[in-house]
Design brief:
The strands form 2 sheets. The chain has a 6-stranded parallel sheet with strand order 3-2-1-4-5-6, sandwiched between helices. Strands 7-8-12-9-10-11 form a 6-stranded mixed sheet, with helices on both faces. The chain has 16 helices and 12 strands. Helix 9 packs antiparallel against helix 10 and helix 12 packs across helix 13. The radius of gyration is 21 Å and the shape is globular. It has 2 domains: 227 residues, Glycerate kinase, MOFRL-like N-terminal domain (Rossmann fold, 3-Layer(aba) Sandwich), CATH 3.40.50; 160 residues, 3-Layer(aba) Sandwich (glycerate kinase, domain 1), CATH 3.40.1480.
Length: 406
């Protein structure tokens, strides 16, 4: 069963590889410039170059990821550094230099929020401190982006405002709901959030960042321009299309399991909230299926996606998928098989894609409480010996959770 869980995840990744997803949805016209950013950017760009031949391009990837022979800027993720600044400034210069009749093809995937860094009103050091604080706060991706968009010259549609060219965007979604304004902080898409909402996020999570607050307050007073809004005429120059989503990933795993003769149900591709609360929901659902055959009759596989959050209060290491599994282990009354992983191959600070729960973990008798108290899910699964390591996968279609209820 452990091998089947792993194979379902790997088969889903193969079926939703960014190269194939992109190749099927490229426009018929040849672009004057291709911009590619994010964890899936290299295979997306390669698909475009294989179609169009020689085209000027700019590629930004996370450090440690393979470029496949393409020239790239390797920037830090999730906390930006000088290379992120370099990437952001180069992209702005390229966009600003284009004439009105030019056509840009933008290939955007998750991770782009950090990789293209062009601070507005704050220093790089302030952006770094903000990113670290937001990641530890447990804020949702929409809340995080509401703040980051208002401190950037690229995010929140400002990349579109920086050019006179026409822009067509292909998106690989890593966010629940697949909202284009949220993917990579929507560099070419309108942003419904405001400076006031960004300030409210700081208040909600008690973030003491004076330089960031001062910049957002100046924007709220009208001293800085707002992000791109839905009524802006610049949007006449924008077209876009989703090429891959979390639901595609889940459906690919479901199809594989069905071919193997198993019943598999997708619960949702939009689960969010705190990872521990999400684990409790899954545990209670498993209990209902086992006790009453409701809402599904066993045996079956349960698939779910989306993106949970972790409020970090301890000094351990881990990620939202490891935290989910650790909390699931704590809530379940009897063993089961489960896998949870980030489709990009790196779950939080763990260095692993995710992990597995197996009856063997229960047999070890590990106490989850001290690990939960320190947010040390990596330590727990390292001790259990069930970490799942894939390395960077070259894609980013959000989280993958698979439980077997027998």
């Amino acid at each position: 069963m452990e091998a089947l869980l792993k194979e379902a995840f790997l088969q889903a990744l193969e079926a939703t590889h960014p190269y194939g997803l992109t190749a099927r949805r490229l426009p018929s016209w040849k672009p004057d410039l291709i911009l590619a950013v994010g964890k899936g950017a290299a295979p997306m760009l390669q698909a475009a170059l294989d179609r169009y031949g020689r085209v000027p391009y700019h590629l930004t990837l996370p450090k440690g990821q393979e470029a496949g022979g393409l020239e790239a800027v390797f920037a830090r993720h999730p906390v930006p550094d000088r290379e992120n600044l370099r990437a952001g400034e180069e992209v702005l210069s390229l966009l600003q230099a284009l004439p009105p009749k030019a056509r840009v093809l933008a290939l955007v995937s998750g991770g782009g929020s950090a990789l293209w860094c062009a601070p507005a009103g704050v220093s790089l050091e302030a952006k770094q401190a903000l990113t670290e604080a937001l990641l530890r706060s447990g804020a949702s991706i929409r809340e995080v982006n509401a703040v980051r968009k208002h401190l950037s010259r690229l995010k929140g549609g400002r990349a579109l405002l920086a050019t006179r060219a026409r822009v067509h965007v292909l998106l690989l979604s890593d966010v629940p709901g697949d909202d284009p304004s949220v993917i990579a902080s929507g560099p070419f898409h309108p942003d419904p959030s405001t400076y006031a909402e960004a300030l409210a996020v700081l208040d909600r999570y008690g973030l003491d960042l004076p330089e960031v607050r001062a910049a957002l307050e100046r924007g709220a007073r009208g001293e800085y321009p707002e992000t791109l809004k839905p009524e802006d005429p610049a949007l006449r120059r924008l077209s876009w299309r989703l090429v891959g989503t979390n639901l595609d990933l889940l459906r690919a795993a479901q199809a594989f399991l069905r071919r193997e003769g198993h019943k598999a149900v997708i619960l949702s591709d939009r689960f969010g909230g705190e990872a521990r609360a999400l684990a409790r929901f899954h545990a209670e659902l498993v209990g209902s299926i086992r006790a009453h055959g409701l809402p599904f009759r066993k045996p079956l596989f349960l698939l779910s996606g989306g993106e949970a959050q972790v409020r970090v209060v301890g000094r351990g290491q881990g990620g939202r998928n490891l935290e989910f599994l650790l909390a699931l282990y704590a809530h379940l009354e009897s063993p089961l098989y489960a896998l949870a992983a980030d489709s990009d191959g790196l779950d939080g600070s763990s260095g692993a894609a995710g992990a597995l729960l197996t009856p063997g973990v229960w047999a070890r008798g590990l106490d989850p409480r001290p690990y939960l108290a320190e947010n040390n899910s990596l330590g727990f699964f390292r001790e259990a010996g069930t970490l799942l390591r894939t390395g960077p996968t070259g894609t980013n279609l959000n989280d993958f959770r698979l439980l077997y209820v027998d």
